[in-house]
Amino acid sequence: MKILVCISKAPDTTAKIAFTDGNTKFDENGVQFIVNPYDEWYALVRGLELKEANGGTVTVLNVGGAENDPIIRKALAIGADDAVRIDAAATDALSVAKQISNYAKDKGFDLIFLGKETIDYNGSQVGGMVAELMNLPYVSLATKIDVSGDVATVERDIEGGVEVVEVTGALVLSAAKGMAEARIPNMRGIMAARTKPLAVEAGTDVTAVTSIKNFELPPAKSACKLVAADNVEELVSLLHNEAKAI
Amino acid sequence: MSILIYADSSNGKLTKNAFEAANYGAQLAQQTGSSATALVTGTVSGIEELGKYGISKVLHASDATLDSFDPQKITHVIAEAAKSIGADTIIFSHDYSGKSVAPRLAAKLDAGLVSGAIALPNTDGGFVVKKAVFSGKAFAFVEVNSATKIVSVLPNSIEKKIGEGSAAIEAFAVEIPTTNLKVKEVRKESTELSLTEADIVVSAGRGLKGPENWGMIEELAHELGAATACSRPVADIGWRPHHEHVGQTGFAIRPNLYIAIGISGAIQHLAGVNGSKVIVVINTDAEAPFFKAADYGIVGDAFEVVPKLIEAVKKLKAQQ
Ligand SMILES: Cc1cc2nc3c(=O)[nH]c(=O)nc-3n(C[C@H](O)[C@H](O)[C@H](O)COP(=O)(O)OP(=O)(O)OC[C@H]3O[C@@H](n4cnc5c(N)ncnc54)[C@H](O)[C@@H]3O)c2cc1C
């Protein structure tokens, strides 16, 4: 079984969010970067579990510059066999999806996994785009996948429930919580990751169709109105009369 | 400019999110002096209701093979519908269905997609859409430069404008491709209110000490007609089901009212709830970070405050 896991780089969940250049650029100053949690915790780990159960390989892929190598090594330390970095700027979702599909289309991957969204731009776009570009089925926000022969049984979140689908042949999936338990790389994994292959491939010529003009921070929240613990009725009256929320 | 809205359905009825997306499309049509057409797929009743949300024409691809949700098929049907009316702007809800179809359609049409829009596009000499980024810690204004533009609307983020009228329904015949995907089963989580659609959410964290103490949380939620949620550690240790986990790595929700009980308000938790219109925090620790994000708060013990809150809500309801 040949598995491809697409990973992206994201600011640490505690990173201070600030902007520079007249609010047009994310301020990376002092920001720690991590593997996007959905890609690492769910997509990558489930890929590794399926490989461990069925044999095969797990390749991780990232679109970006050499500054992304540390997060790629982290994925190798967790257990991926090899890695590919498409050396191109990740300008927008469609251009990243085109880079991925241009690379993957003739490699014969059985499963292509991604996280359900990145925690920076929260797009939830790349997986569906890759699937369309490769003419493959796409299961979004999947919480479970089991594979038997060439049939995969996948569960995905839907409004107020779960849908179970069966896919024959190759597929693209975006992974959500429930898919797997996060793994922490051990010392042996970290050592091994240093020598695992990380191929750098030139990107193809693609153009972005969206661009961020500028950012804005939310307005500061006005101070919290405190109500005494022995005066709960006051809270209910505020919520009813002032906030009109109940 | 011509606008097409994909109006999704569930159990043969249009969803709340579908009406919201339709209304967004209708408001955009009014802003730009263009027309808004909705597309409905599968066996669905009550379609004419879309008229109240500003839609005058609906294309209905009623082929029963579209009753089960196959993103590849739906994408094909939407692309055909867009072609037939010459649509250059396509609107979705940024819900589960939208997330599985809108990106496919964007790739198929080589169109820029803004997902999770929270306002109408600014169409003054361009097409710029506001959306939340960094899990709600900031907003981005995204410009779409392609000829065809796709926007998915974050549920519960648009002021609806409801009027009168009934939409004219036109049958839309289209050939449907075969795919390698089969829907085997759809399981709805009982009749509980769906967390992401609920107007009020009552949420609790590790401060509740153990799963046996959730009775009062459920009772409060019941009295308020609210859905229940929880912090991540609570779901991780199995006190509550995973589908209640909200935050940066769980569900992102934006109810009118979010009541957080015994939750510290870690940055990752706030990231999933900071779009709520009104936040109430109940916590023993006056220094808990959640109070900085709250509109109303009680510094106090949940085991004393929540039962009183239930009584006070009952009393209010009895008066109404
Ligand atoms: C990468 C990453 C992603 C994460 N994603 C998420 C996420 O999506 N969602 C999420 O929730 N967390 C997430 N977390 C975890 C987050 O950092 C916090 O650890 C978590 O939110 C804390 O949960 P809590 O508030 O229930 O527990 P605690 O932090 O233990 O807080 C319990 C609170 O209860 C109060 N309390 C105690 N007793 C009482 C009482 N009797 N009455 C009233 N109050 C009481 C305490 O004062 C305290 O404030 C993430 C962490 C990381 C590193």
**Strand arrangement across the biggest beta sheet of chain B:** 7-10-6-1-4-5-11
Structural class of chain B: alpha/beta
Largest sheet of chain A: 9 strands, mixed
Gyration radius from CA atoms of chain B, angstroms? 21 Å
Tell me what you see in this structure.
The complex is a heterodimer of chains A (about 250) and B (about 325). Chain A has a 9-stranded mixed sheet, sandwiched between helices. A two-stranded antiparallel ribbon of chain A has the order 2-5. Chain A contains 6 helices and 15 strands. Helix content of chain A is about 30%, strand content about 30%. Chain A has a single domain (about 1-215), classed as HUPs (Rossmann fold), CATH 3.40.50. The mean pLDDT of chain A is about 95. Chain B is an alpha/beta fold and about 325 residues long. Chain B has helices spanning about 15-30, 70-85, 95-110, 215-225, 230-235, 265-275, 290-295, 300-320; strands at about 1-5, 10, 15, 35-40, 55-60, 90-95, 110-115, 130-135, 140-145, 150-155, 170, 180-190, 200-205, 225-230, 255-260, 280-285, 295-300. The longest helix of chain B is centred in the last third of the chain and has 18 residues, at about 300-320. The relative contact order of chain B is 0.11. Chains A and B meet through α1, α3, α4, β9 and β10 of A and α2, α3, β7, β8 and β9 of B. β15 of chain A pairs parallel with β17 (about 295-300) of chain B, so a sheet runs across the interface. The site of flavin-adenine dinucleotide has 26 residues of chain B, from α5, α6, β16 and α8.
